[in-house]
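Backbones bend. We report:
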Amino acid sequence: MGANAFVKTVEDYSARAAYEKLVAQAEYDDGHDSYNGTISTCSLGRVAKYSDVCTPAVEKKAYKYIQSLDYGSKWVASVLDLGIVGYDLLAVKKDSPKNGSPARYQQKYVVYKRSGFDDEKYEEAFDKKPDADTYATKKALENPDVRYCVRKQPIIVNKGTDLVSDYRLEKKRLKSRPKSVKKGAVLKEVHKYIFYGWAAS
């Protein structure tokens, strides 16, 4: 069993959130092997505050500090909080559909293909239950390893939309803290973090 030194920088709202993103990316790139040589093989270590505000000079000095520590400990992702790099102003925006006619519903007997406990895929809809039962029986015979079910429910029978509101998050990066934040918005400090250590390989 070997070890690979790593140094990763990332900006986020917290060290924990940054660590989880780095681990997710490492597992996506290199798999879930516990000896893949990435940060995903390490637990999150102590977070040390290095500076209040991150500058190029602070970052350069931090790299030299990490080298002086021989990149930290095995199997631990240690963290330096280099300080604030900006502020994210978050606000939720609500949109209402401007185009399209309203949806028109009709009670139907709907056949679904079941591929999991809560995972169902629409197959076909019928006006009468016997027709739906016949279809589901036929499909089950054709696909013996798949389950089918019939649900009585209203479905959209025109090209209308059932969308009445659409919510999205708007994020604006600010270089300095604003004097005030409008009602409903949230201001978050963005920090730069450096993770370092020795990963299992």
